[in-house]
Design a protein that fits this description.
mainly beta, Metal Binding Protein, Guanine Nucleotide Exchange Factor, Chain A, 7-stranded mixed beta sheet, 10 strands, 5% helix, 38% strand, binds zinc ion
């Protein structure tokens, strides 16, 4: 089991080290949401993530089954609920423990930041991976 959480420490979650996929998303939404060149995220069934501390410190942007979830106190991006609420995309930067999985491809490279150069050899997709 992996632990994750926010910068201020109010929110902690656990997630099974059983991620199904992981990628770096370069879309404008992920860049804005993270304030970074891309978002490294890892997908897993929602049932395998549990909030262990700070249930009342969450801010949910969006709908119960499609949202970005952040810490209300420090604003840190924790995870997104996706795929009709069945999966979560954990913002990998919110993981405190290292997961077994590594991002193994880049998506939405067609809209990546012009100031950022991808310097690895991982597969690149213009939009979603096919
Ligand atoms: Zn926080
Ligand atoms: Zn994205």
């Amino acid at each position: 089991m992996l632990t994750g959480g926010c910068r201020c420490g109010e929110v902690r979650f656990t997630v099974a080290d059983e991620f199904r996929y992981a990628a770096n998303c370069h879309c404008s939404g992920c860049r804005a949401a993270t304030g970074s060149a891309f978002k490294a995220f890892a997908g897993i069934e929602r049932s395998k993530l549990e909030i262990t501390e700070g249930h009342n410190s969450l801010t949910v942007f969006g709908d119960p089954d499609a949202n970005d979830t952040r810490c209300r106190s420090c604003g840190c991006f924790l995870f997104s609920v996706v795929r009709d609420g069945q999966y979560v995309h954990v913002a990998m930067g919110s993981l405190i423990d290292a997961p077994s999985i590594r991002p193994d491809h880049h998506i939405f490279v067609g809209s990546k930041a012009p100031w950022y150069e991808i310097t690895d050899d991982l597969p690149q997709f213009q939009e979603y991976a096919v």
